[in-house]
Specification:
It is found in: Cytoplasm. Its main location: cytoplasm. The chain has 327 residues and is an alpha/beta fold. The protein has 13 helices and 12 strands. Strand 9, helix 12 and strand 10 form a beta-alpha-beta unit.
Length: 327
């Protein structure tokens, strides 16, 4: 990866899953210290099983964030592959990621999830820090339409996996429990950052949940950091299917009326008509943001845009979006 010519002291990235991993890989090319603030509502797969059986935070997205920030020398790269490895077979370990089990074990030994995350970070050679969004495991409840013959009927779907896979259109989400606390260190990291990045990722289950934590939303309104929102490259089936680009921004404003952003990063190769681009510009202005276009998606062998963010290109775009430009 080619690093921007200048760096900033501190970057905070909020989200979960593969979208957050891409941002973190970009962030380490831009900033000397990167803090990941990770959603903790996953209830599926290995994470869901460990959450239910041990009463811990779902470790999957936390593990992915740690691996995205892990050391790149041979020893740490080998450990990262081990942490990402999933057991095969059909027994009790089948499907569990090694890193999930290590985190669970360290939590039991140390008695604190953040101490456990810091310990895993030390093992993997992480130079930044990974923090949970909240110290308590959360559930997502979504208001969904389109599940009944009458399209006006709204049903409530509970659980991240259910929300992401249920047919229909999500209109609004909330957290259970309501108004959870932020984890120790999260507010301070946001307030002291030079750049805060929200997105890309599953809009209703990875991006929006962050601004539903009152302390995080308040910190986002107070921070002097540049706040960048990275728009998804394509609608996500099960969450934002049929959404226009501007709808993503309206949804964010609906859930966080007081949270503004400074920069909206958009790949110019996204299939938007002139009218759609005009509507997107207007929606961005409603968030206080200027639209910055940059080729931040990976390019396929045929030269076309893939719906996957490229960390090196995203790093360059993030650096250039800062006041005065850092790239």
């Amino acid at each position: 990866m080619t690093e921007p010519t200048k760096r900033i002291p501190s970057l905070v990235a909020l989200g979960g899953g593969h979208g957050l991993s891409a941002t973190l890989k970009a962030g380490r090319l831009v900033a000397d210290h990167v803090t990941a603030v990770v959603t903790v509502a996953d209830d599926g797969g290995s994470s869901g099983r460990l959450r239910r059986e041990l009463g811990i935070l779902p470790p999957g997205d936390l593990r992915m964030a740690l691996c995205a920030l892990a050391g790149e020398d041979d020893e740490h790269a080998r450990l990262t592959r081990l942490f990402q490895h999933r057991y095969g077979g059909t027994g009790a370990l089948a499907g569990h990621a090694v890193g999930n089990l290590v985190f669970a074990g360290l939590w039991e030994l140390l008695g604190d999830p953040i101490e456990a995350l810091d310990a895993v970070g030390s093992i993997l050679g992480v130079t930044g820090r990974v923090l949970p969004m909240s110290p308590v495991a959360l559930d997502i409840a979504a208001e969904v339409v389109g599940l009944e013959a009458d399209p006006r009927v709204v049903r409530t779907i509970i659980g991240q996996v259910a929300v992401a896979t249920t047919p229909g259109s999500v209109r609004r989400v909330r957290l259970i429990p309501d108004a959870p606390p932020a984890a120790d260190g999260v507010v301070e990291a946001i307030e002291q950052a030079d750049l805060v990045v929200l997105g890309p990722g599953s809009w209703f289950t990875s991006v929006i949940p962050n601004v539903l934590v009152p302390e995080i939303a308040a910190a986002l309104t107070r921070t002097a950091a540049t706040k960048a929102l990275v728009l998804n490259l394509a609608p996500q089936p099960g969450e934002t299917a049929g959404f226009s680009a501007e709808q993503h921004l309206h949804v964010l404003r609906q859930h966080a009326p007081r949270v503004d952003v400074d920069v909206l990063l958009v790949d110019p190769r996204m299939p938007l008509s002139a009218t759609e681009r005009e509507h997107l510009e207007r929606a961005a202005a409603g968030l206080g943001a200027r639209v910055v276009t940059a080729e931040i998606a990976k390019t396929g062998p045929d030269g076309t845009m893939r719906a996957v963010h490229d960390p090196a290109s995203l790093a360059t775009a993030l650096a250039a979006s800062l006041p005065g430009g850092a790239g």
